[in-house]
Amino acid sequence: MATTLSEAYRDYPLHLHHIIPLDFSSIKTLPDSHAWPQSEDYDNDGPESCIPIIDLMDPNAMKLIGLACEKWGAFQLNNHGINLSVIEEVEEEAKRLFALPADRKLKALRSAAGATGYGRARISPFFPKHMWHEGFTIMGSPCDDAKKIWPNDYARFCGIMENYQKQMKALAEKLTHMIFNSLEISEEQKRWVGSTNLCEAVQLNFYPCCPEPDRAMGLAPHTDTSFLTILHQSQTNGLQIFKEGAGWVPVHPHPNTLVVNTGDILHILSNSRFRCALHRVTVNSTKHRYSMAYFYSPPLDYVVSPLVVNSIPHFRTLTVKEYIGIKAKNLGGALSLISMLKS
User: Fold this and answer.
1) 180-217: b or e for each residue (b if 16 or more CB lie within 10 Å)?
2) Phi/psi zone of residue 24: left (φ > 0), alpha (ψ -120 to 50 degrees), beta?
3) Which first-to-last residue range defines the signal peptide (predicted)?
4) Are 330 and 337 a contacting pair, CB within 8 Å?
5) Alpha-carbon separation of residue 287 from 56, 87, 208 (angstroms)
6) Could you give the CA distance from residue 3 to residue 199 in angstroms, rounded to a whole number?
7) How far is CA 321 from CA 4, 184, 254, 271, 289, in A?
8) How far is Cα 147 from Cα 145, in angstroms, rounded to an integer?
9) How is the beta sheet containing 228-233 ordered, strand by strand?
10) Is 26 helix (H, G, I), strand (E, B) or coil?
11) Residue 8: is it exposed, middle or buried by C-beta count within 10 angstroms (0-12/13-18/19+)?
């Protein structure tokens, strides 16, 4: 049985053409492979459509987080306890990595059945066009992949990434306890928090300047499989969250503030009470954009059972590993496939 997130994805290999990114440094015009149809979705940048900014030190933080998860499936978090220098170091390492020549980055190319290293977004096969994006995925130690790129100079990258992972995990655990308390989850269902065999990953993202940003897509609309995701984004707009009735709402960067969004696992566990945020990334013609996502989920064998209080279960009970498998084959339809509600 698979015991790590990386092993869970081995059963769902990708074709190489869905893994190898374009060499964006040599591109002057938008290729047809990356030209998306003009979107008819509308953007909303009004003051009434802003995801909440929550101070983790606020005495009402737990209540505010619960409300944000119900209404948006996302919030921005300040006073989160992670030193700004830690976040800046990770961003600098991401910039150093993605600035390398394509042939150097390709030394750490993700294998067809692999889940770590350099490559396109894993959701790529589900869309007819490619995304204006490069990624580098870390699960566990980053050293094996880093050694391929920097054979004699990988220690700095590894140390910074491992420290970031450790600090993000501690923050995720704190947020999970607050979320579970707001949901009144039983002690038995909380037991996995703090265990050593969690499903966790760090994803470094790079969205280069694009010659025709209105016809390109940085990251196509999707929800995260995770329990929750903690994201640092550079001070460049691009992330958008979809809210019914409001359209695509930009998540404007604020200094030393992290974005937190709920994923499918928490949506299932909360019996649809908490949204799973549908999000996408747009690109621009003048600035590179970087982000670092930390994905946090229970162990693969954890049984996700909807919390039912005076209602019927909206989803069938299943393990984390089983859900990962369903979503690996049905990106946008995974939740409907396990729905107990008959239309």
Assistant:
1) bebbebeeebeebbeeeebbbbbbbbbbbebeebebbb
2) alpha
3) none
4) yes
5) 31, 20, 7
6) 9
7) 9, 25, 35, 19, 32
8) 5
9) 53-55, 74-78, 258-262, 228-233, 289-297, 199-207, 134-138, 117-119
10) helix
11) buried
**Which distant-in-sequence residues (6+ apart) come within 8 Å of 210 by Cβ?**
30, 132, 216, 283, 284, 285
Task: Give me the amino acid identity at 168.
Answer: M
Nearest by Cα to 324 from 139, 58, 76: 139
- What is each CA distance from 332 to 125, 264, 278, in whole angstroms? 12, 11, 10
Q: Tokens 């790129």 appear where? A: 149
Which of 110, 122, 289, 316 is flagged as catalytic? 289
SS3 35: coil
- The helix or strand, by DSSP H or E, that contains position 258, with its residue range, turns out to be strand 258-262
Q: Model confidence over 42-84: pLDDT tens digits?
A: 566 665 568 999 999 999 999 999 999 999 999 999 999 999 9
DSSP 36-62: PPPP-PPB---TTS---EEETTSTTHH
CB 313 within 8 A of CB 271: yes
Q: And the tokens for 166?
A: 């450790």
Nearest to 197 by CA among 322, 301, 304: 301
- Which residues are within 8 A (CB) of 136 and not within 5 positions of it... i.e. 6 or more apart? 94, 97, 98, 108, 117, 118, 119, 145, 203, 204
Q: Which residue in 233, 228, 188 sits closest to 207, CA to CA?
A: 233
Q: And the tokens for 171?
A: 């923050």
44, 74, 251 from 48: Cα distances, Å:
9, 15, 13
Is 289 considered catalytic here?
A: yes
Tokens at 327, concatenated = 């979503």
Q: How far apart are CA 78 and CA 257, in angstroms?
A: 5
Mean pLDDT per 10-residue segment, the chain (343 residues): 63 75 90 86 64 97 96 97 96 98 95 90 93 96 96 96 97 96 86 89 97 96 97 95 92 94 97 95 96 97 89 94 94 95 70
Apex CA 241: angle with CA 236 and CA 245, to 5°? 135
